[in-house]
Amino acid sequence: MELPDLTFRTYLLTFLSLLCLLGLNVGLAFIHMGWVNMFVAVMIAAMQAAIIALFLMHGLFERAIIRLVMGGALLWFLILVTLTMTDYITRNWLPIAGK
Amino acid sequence: MISKIRIAEAPNYLTEEQGIRSWLLTTDHKRICLLYIAAITFFFVLGGIAALLIRLELLTPVTDLVSPETYNKLFSEHGIIMVWLFLIPSIPATLGNFLIPEMIGAKDVAFPKLNLASWYVFMIGGLLIMYGIARGGIDTGWTFYTPFSTIYSTTEVAVTGVGIFIVGFSSIMTGVNFIVTIHRLRAPGMTWFRMPLFLWSLYSTSVVMVLATPVLAIALLMIIWERVFQVGIFSPELGGDPVLFQHLFWFYSHPAVYIMVLPSMGVVSEIVAAFSRKAVFGYVFVAFSSVAIAVLGFLVWGHHMFVAGESVYSALAFSVLSYLVAVPSAIKVFNWSATLYKGSVSLDTPMLYALGFIGLFTIGGMTGLFVAALGIDVHVTDTYFVIAHFHYIMVGGAVMGYLGGLHYWWPKISGRMYPERLAKAAALIVFLGFNLTFFPQFVLGWLGMPRRYAAYPPEWQWLHILSTAGATILAVGYLMPLLYLTWAWKRGPLAGHNPWRATGLEWQISSPPPKHNFETTPIVTHKAYDYAGMKEELGLV
Amino acid sequence: MSKAEALALREPFSTPQHQRDTAMLGMWVFIATEVLFFGGLFVAFAVYRMYYTQGFLEGSRGMTLVIGTINSAVLIASTFTMSLAIHAIQHNKQLRCYLLLLITALIGLVFLALKFTEYFIHYQEHKVPGIWFESHDPQAGPEQLFYIFYFAMTGLHAIHLSIGCGLVTTMAVRTALGRFNGNYHTAIDVTGLYWHFVDIIWGFLYAIFYIPGFR
User: Fold this and answer.
1) Per-residue confidence (pLDDT) for residue C79, from 0 to 100
2) Of B357, C117, C140, C210, which alpha carbon lies 20 to 30 A from B300's?
3) A36 and A76 inside one domain
4) What ipTM was estimated for this complex?
């Protein structure tokens, strides 16, 4: 499949939205929200990642197989995170004798 | 279909170019297969020597042949060499490399240069591991558990770790190459559901290689950092968690078991169909069971850590998930058995290996259910029961499949037949020797013999003697193919293009194949294993 | 088929389009590998971040926030110029593509220069685990862990970016030599994918290391 011919305008808009998200990220960091801060920061980074992957890397316009690879990478990373975390989150739920 | 008219003296991939340079700079997938065969055979012999020394030491209850320190190094090197330098590349890098383009009707893999690069990367990593051995070896076991590997071990952990890190990249390169090749280079008419099942299993294997290996790489990198810079990533004094290493390690190393055994399953599908003269029963199920094993294999790694301090709830989840892998594995075993039913079965050498695989894999798989059960695993963790279990999968499964595949496709690779009666004898010797080696270890493990010990109570000696005797027989069984396949390379009778009268594009080109496999791109009109529909073309009537 | 295309067409492929699609898929699969490569480190970071919230916050406060933020903007600019380079070659504008690729590589170098300035500052503050680390904080252990991850992850990222700079420069040279045109520019596209991916990683690194330090 040939690369989609996006206009200069699209690229400029992507660039500006990435910069805006960076600004937003810094701005929100000053507000005290506890653990939510980290969550928000990572979510904003994820939005930036999505914009780059979908527009600049043309993920939005690619064949299904490429989207499958993108989705697969994400899913496998989530498997790694989730199943590792099942251990760390529940590790102290059960009282251990003598501890 | 390809024209059956062939010129007898047409140059093939072995004769078209000559000289050492043409081999070391080749980008031909068939020659790279042979480069890999040479390399992994060397490493297999090395790992085998370590195994024999281990078995010899265990002949007596006391440590008399080697010191306990040397013993630790022997089993560590045995594991490291066999896992990373033999089993992981065994079928994919050799038979996979040779057959993927031929089975899909392509001239080469998608990235031929990357393919050659993967061999060099593999060799560099392998040589580094050898260098580590020359400097005294490593005593952490192949698992590199922290904090022993990071703080206490004084052996060559860093060098060996870097070696494995590099070898990992070679397997990633192979994986990327195979995935892309199967997606992009299939000949016209070769739809996904017309592909031989070997390709489905190699595709699944490649997915595991690509998604699991990087996590091993990063885990090893962290160990190396911790050792070199004396910082604590996994050391409890600085707040690190040693179990975290095990999570990352087994995220790779459990799926790695499927890197080893899935290709063998693919080989078995090919062989069972060819020697029953029937299509594999339930093709779609067998195909998707490969994918299912690859995916489910990523959800079970915690069952290696039941006693390592992982949360009980997590262990529970991993235990349950582990049972799921049994489903697609069982589907395969049942479908192979069903393929035999009412087939015209002939017991040629490859078939003997395939049948051996089915039996041994079943035992290995069933005992896998034992160790997946949370309660029983606490009893048998780190005993010979586990050793026996995974050797039934890796040796009884993966190596049997590799040998079966090697015999099945050797006529295609070399153009010549091997001595059939000798080969049958070897197959039986391997089967007997294997069982004699590892079955007593189930008993030993159940009685409580822990792994990785050079000494043991005298009352277990007779079981160890059986096991060592079996290992000797097994060694003979492995030596025989090495000798007669080498002999057949030059002197065996000519095989012709399709000695087994099997379906599949690889059997329609001459043996050994011409450099570019297919003069014109074939157009595929049959589904895989269409023995019923291709009776006349194959001369089976 | 133009001369450039004929030169670039390799063995198993019959058409440039086929070769291009294949190369792109190969890069995407490699990127999937990279996701899991960095993923292992992100998971390890997440585990310790959960256990040692306070110590890691202490670590974030030691970040050079201004340089980090400027660097984020710098990398975003480089993705932009990289996209424009691909856009230019799509329209057969070789000179513009060449210049944009050079600018992209230069911006990459600016990022690396700033990054090493930061490393130097950390070195002066004695915050380099394993080489020179001092902390009077009761949270010293976790803080050190934070810095281990900081150096490991940004260091790996810097290595990736250096490779990227090399690739982009190579592409610029090859563009100048007339190897690419509007019909054939696969290698630039593939390099672009890699470059964008390395930028994405930085976005996450910035979020987990720097952002908590603003409070």
Assistant:
1) 95
2) B357
3) no
4) 0.93
A25 plus A45 within the same structural domain: yes
Same domain membership, residue A53 and residue A70: no
- B25-538 CATH: 1.20.210.10
Q: What is the pLDDT at residue C7?
A: 57
- C-beta atoms of A57 and C189 within 8 A: no
Q: Provide the residue ranges of all domains of chain B, joining segments of one domain with +.
A: 25-538
**Which residues on A lie below 8 Å from C200 (Cβ)?**
48-49, 52-53
Q: Region C183-203: what's the mean pLDDT? A: 95
Contacts of C193 in chain A (CB under 8 A): 57
Asked if C172 has any chain A CB less than 8 Å from its own CB, the reply is no
Interface with B, mutate which of C29, C35, C154 (most B CBs under 10 A): C29
> Taking CB atoms and an 8 Å cutoff, what residues of chain A touch C49?
38
- Whether chain B has a CB inside 8 Å of the CB on A87: the answer is yes
Number of domains in chain A: 2
Q: Does C12 touch chain B (CB under 8 A)?
A: yes
Q: Is the pLDDT of residue B541 over 60?
A: yes
Do B138 and B153 form a contact (C-beta atoms < 8 A)? Answer: yes
Give B-chain residues touching A91 at CB under 8 angstroms: 310-311, 314
Residue C1 lies in a domain: no
Q: How far apart are CA B387 and CA B143, in angstroms?
A: 13
The token duo for C154 is 């940004």
Indicate whether A48 and A11 sit together in one domain.
yes
Q: Are residues A32 and A80 in the same domain?
A: no
Contact C141 B230 (CB under 8 A): no
| Helices and strands (H and E) in chain C: how many | 7, 2
Cβ contact (<8 Å) for B231 and C130? yes
pLDDT, tens digit, 9 for 90 and up, residues A6-57:
888 999 999 999 999 999 999 999 988 878 888 999 999 999 999 999 999 9
pLDDT of residue B7: 46
A10 plus A48 within the same structural domain: yes
The CATH number covering residue C62 comes to 1.20.120.80
Count Cβ atoms within 10 A of the Cβ of residue B322 and give its class: 0-12 exposed, 13-18 middle, 19 or more buried: buried
| Identity of the residue in A22, A46, A84 whose CB atom sits nearest the CB atom of C72 | A22
**Could you tell me the sign of the dihedral formed by the alpha carbons of A11, A13, A17, A20, in that order?**
positive
Tell me the residue range of the domain where A39 lies: 1-61
Angle between helices B197-229 and B242-276 (to 10 degrees): 160
Location of structure tokens 């000179």: C95
Contact A11 C87 (CB under 8 A): yes
B2, pLDDT greater than 50: no
Same domain, A2 and A41: yes
Find the domain containing C74 and state its range: 36-214
Asked if A22 lies within 8 A of C208 by C-beta distance, the reply is: no
Quick one: average pLDDT of B312-323? 94
Kindly state whether residue C22 falls inside one of the protein's structural domains: no
From B369, B366, B354, select the one nearest B399 (Cα to Cα). Answer: B354
- A79 and A32 within one domain: no
Q: Which of C26, C33, C148 sits opposite B180 (nearest CB)?
A: C26
Residues 6+ apart with CB under 8 A from B63: B57, B71, B454, B455
Determine how many CB atoms are found less than 10 A away from the CB of residue B457. Answer: 10
- Report pLDDT for B236: 86
Closest by alpha carbon to B296, among B331, B314, B322?
B322
Q: Does C30 touch chain B (CB under 8 A)?
A: yes
